[in-house]
Design a protein that fits this description.
This protein has helices at 35-45, 59-66, 86-94, 115-120, 162-165, 175-179, 203-217, 249-258, 270-273, 279-295, 329-337, 352-361, 374-381; strands at 4-8, 29-30, 33-34, 50-55, 70-71, 74-80, 101-106, 109-111, 128-133, 144-147, 150-161, 188-193, 197-199, 220-224, 261-268, 302-306, 346-349, 364-367. It is of the alpha/beta class and 384 residues long. It has two domains: 4-217, Alpha-Beta Complex (Spore Coat Polysaccharide Biosynthesis Protein SpsA, Chain A); 220-381, 3-Layer(aba) Sandwich (Rossmann fold).
Length: 384
């Protein structure tokens, strides 16, 4: 799993004219939030633990706002460069501080792709890969390439292997024009995603950004029960050795990730209150689940569990606190922590309690049983 990302935020943003005379382009507020915050949150979703901001123009603003800050467990570090070295030179100057594998992103573009799927494609023999889009009108100001006779555009998100890209980097220099184009195609790949990406490089782009980022920020959510939906329910499942995945569940979760759904598990775990196992057992199992999902190019964004049992010997587990389904406390907690688009969200469960929870929370409900193939159900039920 890749833990580091580098974001290039040092440019002057000259195409934006007066707008960037007082504030750097990545810090322009859109929907009352700096553009850079959207990009940082995107990387945090995919468990990036350290983000380096490479600054130059008005660097002091970045340092004051972000340097050494920790956001949801991710540390932000600012590295100021005294000269403009170009995109290649900027990486060359800091590469010794980075892990062997790292993401690189421009600070003025965003591309809502599944980064776990993206990083699975970096094979051992590759220098790096680049995410590209073929779903929008192409402009010559993007780095354009041809694949099978069709124009594709660089989205500005790369994944590099440090020990292989370092010898190709030049300082000063352009990553796209002087480095990437000279690397043989069998060593560097371009992965095409049929999605739009946002670039805020011109005043016209900024006008489009408000609606794009509102949709980007407000997430459709797929709530899933755990036992009976993700795995077969043998009763009080709490260890990996009695955890059995349901058919095509990896494909189902990846399908949701690829189509921009947040995936959230909401599960009753009265076995904790009954004393059969503890909270640490459940959390260890959930961590193991996500490690397995990562190997398949997908993830569950959040796990919520209700440990309560009315007759528990431990007082703290007797009171429901409205978390246990059919109450909707777990859903409401997710809503506080994620900007959820309820209209586009749904819940998949396997019991009457699950059905009732969906009704109370006012989202769609899909029921499954032991024979249900969730991937086929989702392909049929939801339009992406």
């Amino acid at each position: 799993m890749i833990n580091e990302a580098v974001i290039l935020v040092g440019g002057k943003g000259l195409r934006l004219g007066k707008i960037t005379k007082k504030i750097p382009k990545p810090l322009i507020e859109i929907n009352r939030k700096p553009f850079l915050d959207y990009l940082i949150n995107f990387f945090i979703r995919f468990k990036i633990k350290k983000i380096f901001l490479i600054t130059k123009y008005k660097y002091e603003i970045f340092h004051k706002k972000y340097h050494n800050k920790i956001i949801n467990g991710t540390r932000i570090k600012c590295i100021n460069q005294k000269k403009f070295f170009g995109t290649s030179g900027s990486i060359k100057k800091v590469i010794n501080k980075l892990d062997d594998k790292f993401f690189l992103s421009n600070g003025d573009t965003i591309f809502d792709i599944n980064l776990y799927d993206f990083q699975k494609k970096l094979k051992n023999n590759l220098v790096g890969i680049l995410a590209c889009s073929d779903s929008q009108k192409m402009s010559e100001r993007y780095s354009l390439f041809k694949k099978k006779g069709k124009k594709i555009a660089s989205s500005g998100i790369y994944l590099f292997r440090k020990n292989k890209i370092n010898s190709h980097l030049i300082c000063p220099g352009s990553l796209e024009n002087e480095v990437i184009k000279k690397i043989p195609s069998y060593k560097f790949k371009r992965i095409v995603y049929k999605k739009k990406f946002l670039d805020i490089g011109t005043p016209n782009d900024l006008k489009k950004a408000k609606n794009f980022l509102n949709n980007f920020d407000k997430k459709k959510c797929a709530f899933l029960d755990r036992d009976g939906v993700i795995n077969y329910d043998y009763g009080y499942v709490h260890k990996k050795n009695n955890f059995r995945w349901k058919k095509n569940i990896f494909k189902a979760i990846k399908f949701l990730n690829d189509n921009n759904y947040f995936v959230v598990v909401v599960t009753n775990q009265s076995g904790i209150g009954r004393g059969f196992y503890n909270c640490e057992d459940v959390e260890n199992l959930h961590n193991w689940i996500n490690k397995k999902l990562f190997s398949k190019g997908c993830l569950i964004d959040h796990f919520y569990y209700a440990p309560y049992y009315a007759l528990s010997k431990k007082k703290k587990f007797r009171k429901n606190k409205k978390l246990r389904k059919p109450d909707i406390g777990m859903f409401e907690r997710a809503q506080r922590e994620i900007n959820i688009d309820k209209k586009g969200s749904f819940f998949v469960g396997d019991s009457q309690n699950d059905r009732e929870a969906a009704r109370k929370f006012k989202i769609k409900y899909f029921n499954v049983d032991t024979k249900t193939d969730l991937y086929k159900l989702l392909k049929k039920k939801i339009s992406c």
